[in-house]
Prior knowledge:
Radius of gyration: 17 Å
Number of strands: 5
Strand content: 5-15%
Largest sheet: 3 strands, antiparallel
Amino acid sequence: xxxxxxxxxxxxxxxxxxxxxxxxxxxxxxxxxxxxxxxxxxxxxxxxxxxxxxxxxxxxxxxxxxxxxxxxxxxxxxxxxxxxxxxxxxxxxxxxxxxxxxxxxxxxxxxxxxxxxxxxxxxxxxxxxxxxxxxxxxxxxxxxxxxxxxxxxxxxxxxxxxxxxxxxxxxxxxx
Length: 175
């Protein structure tokens, strides 16, 4: 089911193990897109510092697999911002279960708004609805440490409270 508000534009998303594209309300497999469109994403992948090497380390042995992984990781969150406008790309906030363990995290995908990996992880947990004690237990940190992280998140995202952080996470497809 496609969330309301993203029926128009060009939006890449993951569906199971596939990378798909929503273009003005029509669904396509990414691999079926015209080569000229795919070239925009390939160029970004190939010119990004260390991206191809990281994709190889992530288990993508050939260019096709690397391109699919790159596009799925960098643009695969379904949100209300078009991923491609003309020839300009707009990366999505990462939506990944491997936040702490992925070697490509922060390079293959991009962490928004200058958040550190830990700040982003906490933002994701807040967006998932976890309470402070649950986050502390999961990350093995003290409550004052969590509050320090939350102050930094509020400052970087220009938000005032946990509810706004959760809404930001939901709007940006981090969960």
